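Handout for the seminar on molecular recognition.
Each group receives one record of this type.
Step one: identify the two inputs.
Step two: read the structure output and locate the region that could contact iron/sulfur cluster.
Step three: write two sentences on what you found, then compare them with the reference statements printed after the record.
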Amino acid sequence: MTHKIDEEMLQTLAGEVKALKKERKAVILAHYYQRPEVQDIADFVGDSLQLSQQAAKTDAEVIVFCGVHFMAESAAILSPDKVVLLPELNAGCPMADMVDAEALRAYKKRIPGVRIVCYVNSSAEVKAESDICCTSSNAVKVIQSLQGDDILFIPDENLGRYAAKILGRSLQLWPGYCKTHDRLTKEDILKARKEHPLAKVIVHPECREDICQEADYIGSTAGLITYAQNSENKEFIVGTESGILHRLHQVCPDKEFYLASERLVCPNMKSTTLAKVRDALKTLSPRITVKEEIRVRAKEALDRMLAL
Ligand code: 13P
Ligand code: SF4
């Protein structure tokens, strides 16, 4: 009974969002970690790279970003003339908060000439201090585009280590990490393997090194989905945030997916609800803007990545 009422409520909300979206000439972008009902009303669901590409090219007047703060900020950096809305203003990313512009300036002073590769999970101020941005799907390619050794990778130590290992290069790593992926342990993976011996283990590079060592495939959210789609295998143990299961079930209805741990839930990603999306469209707030002097410098780092 309760389930039916919830379903009806979600349908009503989805209808309201659809009508307001048309009225506001808005586009709704959602990350794969969002709640299923939020992914379902989005015009585009994707990984961080795909979402920033969409934000850069959309001709909609309003962008509703169903994700976390740094994603909406990237959209505002790339499309300053658009109204960029983040339905839940407190949806932040703890990893992005692990580095700040002042600490970076001090680092650059200490090591003159160091080039900074900045994972998009970072603030606009941090991007403005960086040479080039990357996402989990293009980190290897971005680092490959830079010559020499003096490269600092921020803020995700795990992604930096993973990319460095693939390239056989040494990078300076900032000690940041994703609090959600960090909750996944090697014991979780071994237990899941025991329960599902035929399953492939697929994980996000934000996972710790000992988890990545256990994986059959490591990739961005979009990479994990493509891998599962193209694989002959029928079962997968999934080492990333739970929201991805929604898309995996949609694109691979005949395959089985087991979340490697029930702790793989990012509270920030889950704080956006349909009601908040509706309210954002109604009130055109909370709006994300970036100071022009920061925006211009941060855009250079994002543009260098997008040009690749
Ligand atoms: P991707 O979608 O680029 O794999 O990023 C994962 C992530 O942690 C976003 O917060
Ligand atoms: Fe940040 Fe991790 Fe949540 Fe992504 S999943 S928003 S990296 S805390």
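Reference statements: The CA atoms of residues 95 and 178 lie 5 Å apart. The chain has a mean pLDDT of 96.
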